Structure formats: structure tokens, C-alpha cells
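Researcher: Here's a chain I'd like modeled. Treat it as a single chain, no partners, no ligands.
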Amino acid sequence: MGGGTLRRGRVAPVVVAGSLVRGVAPTAVTTWATLGGSMLGREAGRVADALEAGDLERARGLLRGLCGRDPAELDQGQIARAVVESVAENTSDAVVGPLVWGALAGVPGLAGFRAVNTLDAMVGRRNARYARFGTAAARLDDLAGWGPARLTALLTVLAAPVVGGDVQRAWRAWRRDGNAHPSPNAGQCEAAFAGALGRSLGGVNAYAGREEHRPVLGDGPSVEVADIRRAVCLARAVNVLALAVAVGVAR
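Model: Modeled as a single isolated chain. C-alpha cells:
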């Protein structure tokens, strides 16, 4: 009896450890694969490096890795604005959204949200050939990102002091301008970032031969090159806050 008890006592921790590894490992791997905050900050920083060095052509080339705009005719300020807007929107898509859905639904939530978001980026409302499929993908992405985008905006408002911003100003910009954007989710994030940074976002965007006129978000001066690094710093603060929220929800 004593020997049997001892063996069971030795085996039990091994079984428990194995169960933990099987549970934690998929979550860790999926989280690593789906969260894009580090890459987003790194790519934005590379554009800032190029602009600060006066290498406009390199900055234009690097911008293609962050957004789908045609950078051929963009000047320094327009590139900086595109980067800040991309950082704002992708803070929700690449970090907050996966964390929220992961906290609510585990690995399927993490992977599912990123799959929907990636599908929208690939075919969402892109052309006539994929009109039905792309529209469905875009609407599904809008639905999945509705909550994360608004949480991102709220956390951005709270994190405004990290970059020398004002919480009340960020709140006003978010609540006033968040719904002016054609995207129900991107506008929330961009308006909050504009308010937190004390800058204005929006304007004319060029996409493969067509122009889109976006409403102005925020009420500050135009974005400058230095604001790219401020936006990355703000995004990192939002990421930390979002992680804390996700941990609290998952408990």
C-alpha cells in the first residue's frame, strides 16, 4: 500500500504538469502568433528613422508595410499622418482585439478574431470580383472589432498623459469625432489618438488611383514626424492597459 501511494504521489505532479503544458502552450503560441504590437511599433519606427534622415523615398517604401495607401506623392507630413493613423487603427486590430477575444473565448477567440481581421484586409470591399465575399468579410470584421475598438479608444484617453496629452481633450475628440469616420471602428481609435496626441488626423487619402476624403479628427495642428514615436509610445501604454483588462476578464 505504501509503495502504491508513493508512486501515485510521484505521478500526480507529472500529470498535472502535463495538463498545464497542454493548456498553456497552445495559448502562448497562439498569442505570440496573433499579437502584432511589437511589429507595428518596429515598422512605424523604421518609417520615422527614414523621415528623420531625410530619406523620403525609403519612407514611402516602408509605408507600404503599414497601410494600403499609394505613397508615391505623399510628402513628409502626409507619411507621418498615415503612420499615426495606422498605429491607432492597428492597436485595436493587432493587440486589443485579440486580447479581448482571447480573454472571452480562449485560443479560438484569439485565432478567430485575427482570421476575420486578416480576411477583411485581404478581400474586404476591394473590388467587383470579390464584392459579395469582401463585403461579408468587412461586415464580420466590423462586428468582431466593435467592442475592442471602443475599448482601445477609452484606454487611449486614459493613457493620454503618457505622451503629454490631456485626458479631457482626448475624451472630447473621441466622443465628438469618433463616429465621423466611414469605418465604425477605425474612427474610434483615430479620434482618440488625435485627441491624446493633440493633433489632427484625417484628410485626403490616395488608394491605387482613387482618392478618399476623410473627415478631420481632433482639433490640433497637423501631424509631424516626431508624432510617430509619440503614437508608438501611446500604443504601448494602451497595450499594457489592455493586457491588464484581459487578465481581469479571464480570471
